[in-house]
Protein 1
Amino acid sequence: MAKITGQPSSTEFLQYFEERYADEATIVVTPAFDSNGSRRHELFEARLLGHEEIICISAQPLLDCSRTLLEAGFKGSAMLRMVHVRSPHVIALSGRIEDAAQLDVMGAHFVRRKPPALMSGPTSGGARQDEPHSTLNSKTPRCPSDKAGRPRTRS
């Protein structure tokens, strides 16, 4: 998760919430606004139901909150429910904390999150895991060129 302006620098306050030991927790999401009062599109502030402290500001609040709650000692088997502030009785999304913590959103789909160790650094084959795999042979030029490897030009 990239650092977002306004994101809480510490989530130590979560260690004192009784919800850490519960079998379910609910987060309430509200639209995020900047210091000028302008809507920060696609971003939401997420708080535990009944608490004022912001857990995270995110475009995928259920998933990012689940990672934060898991790190703070919440039960991984607990159900995490997400509701919007204007309709607190309608569950928008839900899932087990440990399952949601393993996912990210890519486009309109949920995808399995790569462990941080696989996201950077060389692998045994010398290629990085986060780089797209090329189907081109290393001897095949990517654009028409002469034998010296320079692009062809018309004269």
Protein 2
Amino acid sequence: MTRRGLGSLLCVGLPLIAASLSDPSPAAVFVTQTTGTLIVDWTIQGRADLADCRLANAEAVQIHVVGSNGADAGTYEQSCAAFETSIVLEPGTYSATALLVDVARVPRSTTVTIIPFSLFGNDVIRTPIDFPATSFF
């Protein structure tokens, strides 16, 4: 290639290379999930049996979550018969309690404490709880 041909190639090639390097569109986009999930499994007297929900006259489980700073993170409810619920929360450290309630949302049990937990985002924590016979009114 002559010196003149090489110069022409550089004049055309360099702007193309520069344009491709300055292109702001990434080849791959990484999406990070910023929430975590608490899964609460419950039993009544050690069993996950619909008959125990009926016997206790419990329609639902209410789970109240509080952030480590004392901020209310919400009260979540699930049918007693589900024996499991998932709660999506922002990263942080939390404490929680659970309570069985009847159809009118009147408590049917004492409060069960859920062990404090921390979510860091894109994680799942599963925690089991039990409503023993002594927790019913």
